[in-house]
Each structure stands twice: as C-alpha cells, then as structure tokens.
Amino acid sequence: MGRNPRVRKLFGEGLHWAGCTIIALLGQQRRFEALDFCYHILRVQRQDQKDDVVKGIPLKRMVDRIRRFQVLNSQIFSVLARHLSAEDERAGVEHVRCFPPPSANKIN
Q1: Neighbours of 84 (CB within 10 A)
Q2: pLDDT in tens, 29-74
Q3: Helix or strand holding residue 11 (H, E)
Q4: Is residue 38 within 8 Å of residue 59, measured between CB atoms?
Q5: Is pLDDT at 81 greater than 50 in this prediction?
Q6: How many Cα atoms within 13 Å fall on the side-chain side of residue 59?
Q7: What are the angstrom distances between the C-alpha of 22 and each of 18, 79, 98?
Q8: Over 60: is that where the pLDDT of 9 sits?
Q9: Which H or E run includes 58?
Q10: What CA–CA distance (Å, rounded) separates 99 from 7?
Q11: Under the GO molecular function aspect, what terms does this record hold (predicted)?
C-alpha cells in the first residue's frame, strides 16, 4: 500500500486480497514471489545488512514494511490455496469446450 493513510483506511487489506486473488487464479504465485522487486530488495538487505538512508528513506524502515507485506501476502495466498484446492476437489475435472471462430465463407 502507498504512504497515503486514507487509502489504507478506505480499502484496508482489500487491495492486497484483490491482487493476490488475481495472481492465484492465474497460477502466477511462484513467478510473483520470484520476480517481485520488493522481495528482491528484502533479500539483498538481509545479505548486506545496510541501514542507510537513501533519498530520505531509511532502508531498515522500508525493509520492515516490505516484510510485513510479504507476510500478509503469504497468509492471503495460503487461504486462497486452501479454498481453491477445495473448490477443485468438489468440482472434479473441469471440461472446457472450445469453439472455433467462424470462417469468412460461412458468414455470407
């Protein structure tokens, strides 16, 4: 979430739930966790342990915030995984029927 407290007050964790739900439904959770730049910053800071202030932003404070959001995302993904797997088990195998596009000569 941004620094704007009004957004957090208005939406709470709803934006995180929406984003994580879309990611989970598309099957992109592992890709998100591997390629999210904030997670990369978190891993780098854990290795070098720097606590500098960059452009007025203390790295330690930013990394703590990233870690809180990472924990929140993990919790959301685990809830979604439980419910999505339960839905799959109840529904059985889903059959998707594909329809070819109409050909030009059939339109006339």
Answers
A1: 15
A2: 999 988 888 888 888 888 888 778 878 888 888 888 889 999 999 9
A3: helix 5-11
A4: no
A5: yes
A6: 13
A7: 6, 14, 23
A8: yes
A9: strand 57-58
A10: 43
A11: small GTPase binding
Provide the pLDDT for residue 75: 95
Question: Which residue type, as a one-letter code, is found at position 10?
Answer: L
Cβ–Cβ under 8 Å, residues 16 and 75: no
Q: What is the CA radius of gyration of the chain?
A: 21
The residues, ordered by sequence, that sit 6+ positions from 7 with a Cβ below 8 Å of its Cβ are 1, 15
Which pLDDT value is given to residue 95?
A: 61
Quote the Cα angle for 68-72-75, to 5°. 140
DSSP single-letter state for residue 56: T
- Cα 29 from Cα 63, distance rounded (Å): 21
